[in-house]
Design goal:
The complex is a heterodimer of chains A (114) and B (116).
Chain A lengths: L3 E4 L2 E5 L4 E7 L7 E6 L6 E6 L5 E4 L2 E6 L4 E6 L8 E11 L2 E6 L3 E6 L1
Chain B lengths: L3 E3 L3 E4 L5 E7 L5 E8 L3 E8 L6 E2 L6 E7 L2 E6 L8 E8 L11 E2 L3 E5 L1
Parallel strand pairs in B: 2-11
Antiparallel strand pairs in B: 1-3, 3-8, 4-5, 4-9, 5-6, 7-8, 9-10, 9-11
The chains are: A mainly beta (114), B mainly beta (116).
């Protein structure tokens, strides 16, 4: 049972375009929604995160849009660059015994064509 | 910089072998995690620990156990490796939730395990 559903599985975007990755969740107890970026041969690294009390967060070219009523959130990468080519994971967390336990989406392999 | 180090990057083991995956973090984090990553499935939590000698099952604990004898070290144990445990294993760590230093989870670079 996948608690966080991510789409698409793969995405190809031209340089300078907008990349959009979507996620949906079911558990209303989730209170933290990060996006992780993973390059080949590396572990995932935090890219940007949002809490459910705001509808949007922007950091540079990366924006999270959050729709609490629809239980959906998305990552937008503006002016996409070849260096953005990576696998992106959305995630959501609950707290269990003091640990920020993350549940991940299936991942999106993003390719930016030069 | 936070450093989560997984000692073995690539391992090949035989079916039935006992396998140890070791992880060390240098940021005095309370929480440590083991995930496995498979194509199309994302990252799935195997076990986590919020304190020394404490452990909690994640979503897919079957066939695995863990050990945390020291705060900085978290080991994943495959008691009897099977081919369906061929995967990439990721260790991670974080501060206690609510810690003012933030609740980012930091990952190691992964251990690729092949069971033949």
């Amino acid at each position: 049972q996948q608690q966080v559903k991510q789409s698409p599985q793969s995405l190809i975007v031209q340089k300078g375009g907008i990349s959009i990755i979507n996620c949906a969740y079911e558990n209303t107890a989730f209170d933290y929604f990060p996006w992780y970026q993973q390059f080949p041969g590396k572990g995932p690294a935090l890219l940007i995160a949002i809490r459910p009390d705001v509808s949007e967060k922007k950091e540079g070219r990366f924006t999270i849009s959050f729709n609490k009523s629809a239980k959906q959130f998305s990552l937008h990468i503006m002016d996409s660059q070849p260096g953005d080519s990576a696998t992106y994971f959305c995630a959501a967390s609950t707290t269990a015994q003091g640990a920020q336990k993350l549940v991940f989406g299936q991942g999106t392999r993003l390719t930016i064509n030069p | 910089d936070v450093k989560v180090t997984q000692s073995s990057r690539y391992l090949v083991k035989r079916t039935g072998e006992k396998v140890f995956l070791e992880c060390v973090q240098d940021m005095d984090h309370e929480n440590m995690f083991w995930y496995r990553q498979d194509p199309g499935l994302g990252l799935r939590l195997i076990y986590f620990s919020y304190d020394v000698k404490m452990k909690e099952k994640g979503d897919i604990p079957e066939g695995y156990s863990v050990s945390r004898e020291k705060k900085e070290r978290f080991s994943l144990i495959l008691e009897s490796a099977s081919t369906n445990q061929t995967s990439m294993y990721l260790c991670a760590s974080s501060f206690f939730k609510g810690d003012r230093r933030g609740n980012t989870i930091y990952f190691g670079e992964g251990s690729w395990l092949t069971v033949v």
